[in-house]
Amino acid sequence: MSEPTGSTPARSPAPLRLARPPVQDLGVRVLGSGSAVPSRVVTNAQIATICDTNDEWIHQRTGIRERRICDPAKGEGNVQLCTDALRRAIENAAITPDQLDLIICGTITQDMRCPSTACVVAGALGAGHAAAWDLGAACCGFVYPMNIAHDLIRIGTYRTIGVIGADCISAITDYSNRSVGILFGDAAGAAILGATDDRTKGVLAQVNKADGSGWHDLYVPAWESQIAPGSDRTNHRLGCLFMNGREVFKFAVGTFQELIAETLTKGGVTVADVDMFVCHQSNARIIEAAVERFGIPPGKVYVNIDRYGNTSGGSVPLAFDELRKAGRIQEGMVVMFVAFGAGLTWSSSLWQM
User: Fold this and answer.
1) Beta bridge partners of 209
2) Catalytic residue numbers?
3) Least crowded by CB within 10 Å, which of 20, 104, 270, 322?
4) pLDDT tens digits, residue range 262-318?
5) What pTM value is reported for the model?
6) 10 Å Cβ neighbour count for 291?
7) Which helix (H) or strand (E) holds 188?
8) Domains parsed from the chain with CATH numbers
9) pLDDT digits (tens, 9 = 90+) for 23-67
C-alpha cells in the first residue's frame, strides 16, 4: 500500500545510548587477615586408636603430628570458624563490617545447603547489604576467590571485599579409613582486599585451572549412584570423602611444581624475586619436593601441616595469617599463593604486597 500524499516516511528510532562508567584500573591491597581453628586437638596417637596406624607412620608420610577438629557439642562448625576468621580480619584491617561490598566464602563443607555460608556470616557480622556467595573449589577455596576478588576490585566493581577460605573436613571424614582419616583437620582463614590508587599493588600473575576428568579421585558421594563407575564400593562410605591416594599424590606432585613454574613465567620473575611461598598444606613431602626442584630457600616456604593437618580451603589463608602476624609477610614483598585439590583444581596468585 502506498503512503498517503504528504505523509512523512517512518524512521527507525535512534539507538539508545547508555552512559557506562569507565572501567578503572585500581591497585589492590591486603588490608587485613584473620584465622580460626577449633579448640580440640587430635594427635596421631589418638587417630591410631581408631584405625591401623601409628604416629611414626603418619608423620613420616605426611609431616602431620596433630590436627584441630570441630566439636559440634560446643557449637563449633563451618559458620562459626568462618565468622570468627572474618571478624578478626575486619578488626585487623581497622574497618567495620558494613564497609564490605562483597563476601566470598570458599568452602565445600557448608553447615547448611541453603543459605550460603557467606550470607550467614554477613548477617552475623552486620555486613549490611554486602553481596555474598560461596565458591566450591575444595583446597583452592581461598586462592580461586582471591583472584576473583582482586579482579573485581581492579576494574572498579567493588572497593572492599572479604575473602574466606574454610573447611570442616571432619564432618565428611570416616576416621576408620586410614587413607583420609590421618590427613585432614578443620580451619578457616580470611583476608580483606581493598582498592588503592597505587597501581603497583596487586596480582602480578595468576593461574586458575581444573581437570574435571579426574573428579572421581577425590569426591564425596551422597548416593550409591554417584559412586564412580568401576570403583570398589567397599572402599566408599556415603557422605564421606573418598580419595584415591596414589593418583592424588601423583597429581599433586606434578601439578604443584608445574603451577609454580607457570606462575613465575607469567609474572616475569624468578624464585629469587619471591619473598614467600604460601602453599596449600596437603602433604609435607609434596612441599619438600617442590623446594628441592626449584632450589627455594627453606625460609621462603611456610609449613604448618604438622600442627593442623590438611585443612582444605582453610589451609592457605591460615598459613597467610600466621605469616602476617609473625611479621614474615609485610608491605612491599612479593608473595606467591599456590593450591591444588579436588575437582581436580589448581590455582596460584602472585602478589606485590
Assistant:
1) 346
2) 139, 280, 310
3) 20
4) 999 999 999 999 999 999 998 888 888 888 889 899 899 999 999 999 999 999 999
5) 0.89
6) 18
7) strand 186-196
8) 27-196 (3.40.47.10), 202-352 (3.40.47.10)
9) 678 999 999 999 999 999 999 999 999 888 888 889 988 999 999
